[in-house]
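The protein record reproduced below.
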Amino acid sequence: MILFMLPAPPLVIAALGLGILFLLTGCNHLDGLLDLGDGLMAHGSREVRIRALTDRTIGTGGIAFGLIITLLSFGSLASVQMACVAVIIAEVAGKYAMAVMTIFGKPFHDGLHATLHQQTHPWFIIPSTMLLLPLIFLPVSLGSLIGAFFIMVVIPGTLIILAARLFGGVNGDVTGAAGEITRAGVFAIIACTQGPVFFSWISPIF
């Protein structure tokens, strides 16, 4: 909260805000995003893709994917009118996406994700979704909220399907990447649907 009250340009605030988010998560989810980028860019059999996904070194695919998602987050956060509210919504959305991945993402090998997945049941999605309800009381447009809810469902759903096809299932890297991608998507949605800019764009339609 204090960060967004500093007398600094939006670009500086956005950079500091993202840096703090990365530090608070220990960059673990960012690491998963980079690993997923390597896995997506790898060519060959499923085994080759899994090896690229789980390799501790970062390749060109990981760097490119990480830059795209981080720049999207940075540019979108710098563009929103109420950055503090946007961060709250985006962080909640990111964690919800990771919960969806944990509940429904079939693991392809033993690991932390597999351990957590074994402790879940499909009905866990109900209380997880109910925890999103307080978001409706935040000072944000209805279009932003609807867009955020859409993103936090579509991103993990797409990644579960994509991971099953490419890797045979989900691991912790894919789950962490889901959180980062969902956060970026929500930032972008809020930036595009906030206040007068959004409504002036859709007004000719109606």
Summary: The longest helix spans residues 142-166. The chain is about 70% helix and 0% strand. Confidence is low (pLDDT under 50) at residues 196-206. The two ends are 37 Å apart (CA to CA).
